[in-house]
Specification:
single chain; about 110 residues; alpha+beta; two-stranded antiparallel ribbon; 1 helix; elongated; Prefoldin subunit 5; PFD_alpha_archaea; Prefoldin_subunit_alpha
Length: about 110
């Protein structure tokens, strides 16, 4: 996100860019005003900001998301460990049931 805001450093009057269409297709376009940009602030809302303000916005957003990831990482690791334990227990049960079924089949024969 933040890398795409470095357009002011290019000093081009008409900056060529690829505009995202429907999150699947990119089409060529030109940016006529490199000092003001529209940024997606979420849920379909766009805000016009200067390039410098947009850089600040994306820096704050990246910092916020990084902190949120750091907060939830321990809980995710714990849930992963619990999942692994459950998978191991289920695997042991399946092996026991398979062995029991095989033993019963051979006992009947």
């Amino acid at each position: 996100m933040a890398q795409s805001i470095n357009i002011t450093e290019l000093n081009l009057p008409q900056l060529e860019m690829l505009k995202n269409q429907l999150d699947q297709m990119y089409v060529p376009g030109k940016l006529h005003d490199v000092e003001h940009v529209l940024i997606d602030v979420g849920t379909g809302y766009y805000v016009e900001k200067t390039a410098e303000d947009a850089k600040d916005f994306f820096k704050r957003k990246i910092d916020f998301l990084t902190k949120q990831m750091e907060k939830i990482q321990p809980a995710l690791q714990e849930k992963h460990a619990m999942k692994q334990a459950v998978m191991e227990m289920m695997s042991q049960k399946i092996q026991q049931l398979t062995a029991l079924g095989a033993a019963q089949t051979t006992a009947k024969a």
